[in-house]
Amino acid sequence: MTTLPTEATADGGDGLLDALGGCTVLGCRLRVVRTDGWSWGPDPSELARGAVALLPRVLRTHLADALHRTGLPIAAAGVAPQSGPVPQDVEVTVPVRIRAHTSLGELSAAATRAQALGDTSASPGPGAAVPLHRGHAGRVPPDGPAHLRAAGSPTDAEPSAAAHDTVESEVVRSSGLPMAAPPFDRDRVLVGLLHEASACGVLDTVLARLGAETLRLLLSALDAAGRRTTSAPGPPPTAPPTPAPGATEDALGTVAPSAPPDPDALTTALLAALRSLPSAGRDTPRTVTPTGPEPAPGADGTPHARTAPVPGRSREEHHFGPASGTITNTDRALPFLLLPPLHDRGYLQGLTAVLTGGGARDADGAAFAACLAHKVLPPPVHGWLRAPGDAHAVAVFAGATTTAQGTPDTSPPDLERRLGPLLPLLDARLGLQAAQGHTATSPLLLHALAADRLLLLDLDGLYPVWEAALPAELLRPWELAGRPLVLLPARSVASGATGLTHALDALGIGFVTDLPPARGERLSRVPGPRRCWTNTGARLPSRSAPDDTLVGAARRLTYEASRAARFVEALVELRPAVRAGRAPAVERSTTLAVGVALADLAWTLWSQREATDPVDALDRFADLGARVLFHDSTVEIRLPLGARHADLYRHRLLADVPDVPWFGGRTVVFTGG
Questions:
Q1: Hey, is 642 helix, strand or coil?
Q2: What ranges does the record list as Pro residues composition bias (predicted)?
């Protein structure tokens, strides 16, 4: 039973229900049906809230017309007379079906208006589901009202886009909300990445990989962000701690940061890292090696800087990428499916800050996008030769001018030199989110690809947690994951990675391995028929007996080793982002980003019925094609209708992705047809 309010509501009710003494509805069912297109915008739940907010107006209009025809003193416009008897009780015993036509813009505006006025009828209840996936940082809400786009041409029942904007602007103006999102601030995003790394205890590890010019850039960003914070009214913004989705707050088993770090502490850490560099590295001036033709110089002879796009630009400033109206087909739509998970984690926003802060060229964003695409396309022949269809898929996803092999006009060494120093900040964001989303009672697995490349994997979904060059760099991510037991299979340890068990034992990391103990190592035999060993004094976060935990880990060792080997073979060995040894930082960052995005896809779609890993998503979406349409401000990805499209849509994995950096800040929109 629902009693509609008699006072003014979010839709501007005029008092008909008040004149009737209220209206009680028994068993109301509200259904929203699209009549055109397939996209519901970035937040479909907002449309349901807007429909609930518009319900009193729809009901008032229907009641006014129905009661006027019965002879009651109700005006056809729905306004109760100032005088005259009005029946106190009117009972309708038959089902009442009301059909009303509205638009996406009106639904979004009604939801925004109801939220601004505190209308509880349009707000989700305390038990409402939050669309978060395991390991996600959560979709970052837009700064300001969301503008929902109707796919396809507007119908007669829907007003034009200009009418939608007018309705929404009036709602925002009357509610006091900001009219537009603030411009992209590179310095604030870079400082936010530093805050996350510092709050989670890996700032020293990240700074150790940075060069002198990158450290100076971060110092400049920290100073610029501080000046803007002190000059802006209101309290200074703080960087919230990274949440741990997928688990309740009291069952995380992680070390949560208590407060954002002091900017003075960040400055001290940056200066200390700069002083620790050799004198030759500190005195090296910051230079950027150009690639390709230089832009035309200005009036004073100074060449104009060519930087990556900044989100929030107007559509006239989309200088590069395919022209509006370009339509092409691609046999590989999987690279585009990586964008929603990466956007949810804030990776694309951080990448934009890295592109604009690292002296990148316009083509560098497209080159990095091509590296992401290389990770999910079929393996190249001889390690570098790609089929023409795959080269075309890389070009479409990167939105760039390509060579014969589909590689954008930026060499891997140039990309490594300009972006490589700042990419560890993005790696820290993704890796620490995966660590904080880990269940403490579930083991981790350590795979040593080489002596200086240690990959830590979460067995639940096979999320890549962290990639380190030294065993000591694994300590803090292991602590954030809840100090779980670590599986170290013999087949996952490269021949050159000697002394790994001794290093882990010295750090206090408990492990189970089938590697025989070396001379001088104090390892205990795990009970059971399998020849496995563990280091003594390991802290096991389990309520069961320690022997049961160790025996269970030993039983899983062989199976989990095969899963990890399958992951490494598919995403590292067979699908390099660049040729071996030419850009190690780019290779490491793209492996982590693609591994997390594919793990999100697999976990969201199939975790309820099977154990998932990123290779499942890689195999099952490998042959999914799409039709790509480039518009002024959007890039439309039209997927073929079928079971896979329905599954992706049902699990909200086809949300709009705004401000994609290598598309000139355009929004990627998924439709079907």
A1: coil
A2: 233-244
